[in-house]
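re: that chain from earlier
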Amino acid sequence: MTADQRMQGNSTSTVLGRRLGRELIRLRTSAGRTQTHAATALTASTTKVAKMEGGWVPVRDPDIRALCELYGVRDPGVVGGLLELARVNRERRKAKGWWEDYTIHGVMQEYVTLESAATGIRAWQPAFVPGLLQTAAYATALRTAPASPAAKSPEPDEEFVAARLARQKRLSDDPPLAFRAVIYEAVLRNFPGGIATAQRQLDHLAEMAELPSISLRIFPFGGGTHPGLNGSFNIMSFAEPGAMDIVYVEAPFAQRWVEGGDGASAYDELFEMITDRSLDETASVSLLHSLRKEL
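^ sequence. v structure.
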């Protein structure tokens, strides 16, 4: 979805809103109901229902419950997931946070607000150290690496690095973000910034891997090929993992959101496959220490 498609007048179609809307559409069609049926149940117009399903407006809890009743959805887990996603979306629309102090462009504007609201993130990275685990020196070095997406970011260097470090506070929040990261071994052997940057970054990764809220695993060269080698992706959870996930996908010169459905499920399966073929956490940290000694 383009920026123009996400804006209509003063209305904004949010990623979380669209994810919720897709689920409401799925439940409605499975129940054999129309938007007219939904509008009647809500004592509202079909236009309102269309806006709810398109992610254009925040959705109130009573409306969620009324639609679930209409669609015959009584599973507390499903209803609770919808209510939680609606709550997070309402809060995200009016949220003020650290990002207000920085100039953040493009898709990252929405990404950082979602990252601040997520309960868990699963990240696969075949090219760079994940942003949440980067040192200041590594982030700075990315700005001068021609092949790095960060080098094309319009923010001034100092502001870019400061914003990246501000993001990392989410890892020490109470409660902290549950972060599972899998990094391709090549990332650890091809550092921007030289030996000193590599040494500090490897030390930092080993330190972060000791935190109970962080799981860090390395996908080794001998792990074979898989579709994830084409680009990185982050799976963001806002309730129970898998229930209402949203996927942020990066490829050269492009980013996109996968807002639930079979697409998000495919990325979930891919991440677990990559994880299963990776070194376990203990072996991954041992590899970090071994690489550090080689420098």
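The mean pLDDT is 88.
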